[in-house]
Amino acid sequence: MDGFQVISSRSTYCRPYLDRLSALLAATDAAAVDEAIDVIRRVWERGGQIITLGNGGSAMTALHFATDWSKGVFMATGRRFRARSLVDNMGVITAYANDVSFQDVFAEQLRNIAVQGDLVLAISGSGNSENVIRAIDYANGIGCETLGLCGFSGGRLKAKAHYVVHADVNDMQLCEDVHAIFGHIVMQALCGMTD
After folding, report:
1. In the list 1, 48, 89, 178, which could disulfide-bond 167, CB 3.0-4.6 Å?
2. According to the lineage, what is the superkingdom (predicted)?
């Protein structure tokens, strides 16, 4: 047909992506992941809150963590898991964004709920999202534990969080994959499903 190019049915999209993801996972610092799981376990076992946050795709990952861990860990262990996400109340988010600033939508929420000894888990692909950095600064200032999940160079989040899981890749989809997988590793570790 005029004006149309026939695309080969033998195009390969999946294998190159999976190969890049496999290489990234193989290079991931397993000791840093284990350390992050240990801090989550410590905060959980002492009854502290695990508070998650992020923007865009990272917001959905933050919400996924809170959902999986609060239901799944409790169901598997019988011990309550006090997880919450700062991304699931659009009224609160838009009120702070409108009346204060979008850069403060997470820090302002932390002022109401976070206490010393809680864990604030912040996710940012670039590591430089201003609202994420302000939340980490606030959490550090009141004595919370802080865990940063980042990609690319790690940005300011890598420098400021007490614990870091860094997907060292300049590719947002791949770093988001690593962050999602981290959540599933945490789930299985806390539920006693890993060897």
Report:
1. 178
2. Bacteria
